[in-house]
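Review form for a predicted model. The reviewer records the input and the model, then writes brief findings.
Reviewer: anonymous (R2)
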Amino acid sequence: MKTTIYDVARAMCLSPGTISKIIHNNGNVSEKTKQRVLEYIKEVGYVADTNARILKSKKSWIIGVIFADISLIGLEHPFFASVIQQFKNYVEAQGYEIIFIVNKLGQNEMTYLGWCKNKKVDGVLIVSGNVTRKNIIELVESDIPSVSTDIIMPHLNSVLSDDYMGIELAINYSLSVGLERIACITGPLTTRAFSERLMAYDQIHRKLGLTLREHYFQESESFGYNGGFNSTIRLLERVKEIPQCILAFSDDLAFGVIRAIESKGFKVPEDISVIGFDDIHFAERYTPSLTTIRQNKEEIAIRAAKILIASIERKTNRRDIVKKIPVELVLRDSTKKKGTI
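Model under review:
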């Protein structure tokens, strides 16, 4: 027999209204009472009556997720997979469920907007996507609230890492340990993050009066290890003066960069230091362990979730919010340390 909210209220000697507040995480209820009720609900297996909630609120309590992964890594993508999981954890705690938006419903081709209307989603998270794609533009310009953790465009709220800050931290640290010849390996510049990091690399060099050396920049043909390896080989074979440090604009690229350096007979970090960007789980376990720029994936996901839910619940109608989340430099074994030059 199904346990109802009234059954829970009777068992806990509380009002149904108090139980509802706890389930939907709103209202003023003491933490002690909240934990007592949540533990009981977990024990008896109570599940909220979704249909009744939908009728009462006139919402579907569904958030759609678009993950147009141009890196072709899919849901195993170490950065975006973590963002999705953190986002999912937060919105589910607020009573929402997530579903992935695709281009087909059965055998029927559909636009993203058509798919969202068919499923009656309350809002959309664009984990990654292409700002020039008609499907994305049409959805973002609709009246369905949306937020992204990857792209910036009109009518869209975005929560992103501060790429400029990350590159500045990497360059300033390199200079602090006496490494002035700083090269960079970027992934395909069709993505916002890589193009912004390259722009920051250029701007910071100019701001600090550093020499932008010829051939110290190489764009990879792909996003991962092989792209980083091949790009570094090309860079090292054509430069007149070997760089003292190479900034890789993702950790996956950095792993390939390190092996390419070693394949040319150099040592990391004795001859060339390497700094990545992301701080994925494997960065600490690589050999040598990777110095990198850590993105705060949890903060990005939760901030995006809060902005989207606020838009859904009409607490704010403002769009075009671009929130930059601070990053930090994590020092490991792939860079020289102060006092070792």
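Findings: The chain has a mean pLDDT of 87.
Further findings: The radius of gyration is 24 Å.
Recommendation: see findings above.
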